[in-house]
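The pair is set out directly below:
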Amino acid sequence: LFGFFSVFNADAIKDINIIKGGMPAKYGGRLSSVLDISMKEGNNKKYQTEGGIGLISSKLTFQGPIQKNKSSFIVSGRRTYIDILANPFLNKPGNAFAGSGYYFYDLTTKVNYKISDKDRIYLSGYFGRDVFDFANSNNNIDIKIPWGNATTAFRWNHLFSDKLFVNTSLIFTDYRFEFDIVQRAIEGGTFQLNIFSGINDWNTKVDFLYQPNPKHTIRFGTNFIYHRFTPGNATGRVGDVDFSPD
């Protein structure tokens, strides 16, 4: 919310490490700084619920065991309601911002399962959206601008020996931005326009860690990323006629 809130839900975060420069090779040769975030794994012994209620937002986190001492989960969500609180002030007669609103929400979840002393799997996900909308009854116009990111990750950790460890990851991310406008009762019928842009990433990583002795650590692996860019896709309709400005 314009910098007032963190992008990440602190209740679901275990650790954050920022690297300003000289990034290790495992980050794929990033040119800027790297923010390495680790999520909580959930309590595998008992159920816990925590949350908070603020002036313009609330959050709730629930975690606990799926199978005691073997698997656990955590689910954490946030939602602002400044759009609801500001509605009586914005909808005063003559206000240029009447009918407008803004809010965001996100959901973070993670599940982990201990297959054996040498194998463990993780499944995590994040879904977040910011939404700005504007509905003006005088001009019969509705505008909605949602944008946000969704990501899912599957990881398998395997211990070959006390000296060799491998972490295999499958990751999918989806960022999208949309602009929707609907204007009713104009000449020729209702006018609708949708503009969409986004980025999809499919990522596969295999990271090995080898420690021949306590004083030496060797990391190696491979990484494959498939990017799909949609810089701009526009579709519209006037009455019963569809069109594409592209």
Q: What stands out?
A: DSSP finds one helix and twelve strands in the chain. The two ends are 32 Å apart (CA to CA).
